[in-house]
Design a protein that fits this description.
The protein has 154 residues and is mostly beta strands. It has a single domain, classed as OB fold (Dihydrolipoamide Acetyltransferase, E2P) (Beta Barrel). 14% of the residues lie in helices and 44% in strands. The chain contains three helices and eleven strands. The strands form two sheets. Strands 8-1-2-11-10-9 form a six-stranded mixed β-sheet, with no helix packed on it. The longest helix has 14 residues.
Length: 154
């Protein structure tokens, strides 16, 4: 496996790592505005870079579990013309993954939405769930999740 640069973060009680090139930036926000009639996994929107509206999603809702945790940190990902964000509790930092790192298959409780979880990276200090963020925020996957939450909401 070629060496990969990853960035880690925590959401709820889960530790994740994503390819660093998938993260556009991390912003500290005062508030996220709920969207009237909006459904989970959409948490709301925020003004981004002065002239854009950034939808902010619940990462854990997208992965099949519910855990609301207030946070002012939002990771921005996606293409420049259509970015999206998700809240994180804290950022861990940049790390490298290479041939000597052990990667196991993920066998936890989170759903494998669009093959977004590619495994578990075992590092000194614990395990991190490897997340392929571009697969998670694929527009078809997002629409399917939105429909599923609407069907399950009274």
């Amino acid at each position: 496996m070629p060496e990969r640069r990853l960035i880690s973060f925590t959401v709820g009680s889960y530790r994740f790592a994503v390819p660093i090139e998938a993260v556009r930036e991390v912003v500290n926000v005062a508030s996220i505005v709920p969207v009237p009639g909006g459904r989970r996994p959409l948490e709301g929107i925020l003004q981004y870079r002065g002239n854009m509206v950034l939808p902010v999603f619940s990462l854990l809702d997208l992965l099949g579990t519910r855990h609301d945790e207030p946070s002012n940190l939002v990771v921005v990902t996606g293409p420049e013309e259509d970015p999206v964000g998700f809240r994180v509790r804290n950022m861990g930092g940049v790390m490298f993954s290479g041939d000597n790192d052990e990667i196991a298959s993920y066998e936890g409780e989170l759903a494998l939405s669009g093959d977004a979880i590619s495994g578990v990276l075992k590092k000194t200090g614990g395990e991190l769930i490897l997340l392929e963020i571009d697969r998670l925020f694929d527009h078809r996957t997002m629409m399917d999740k939105q429909r599923g939450h609407q069907a399950n909401t009274p």
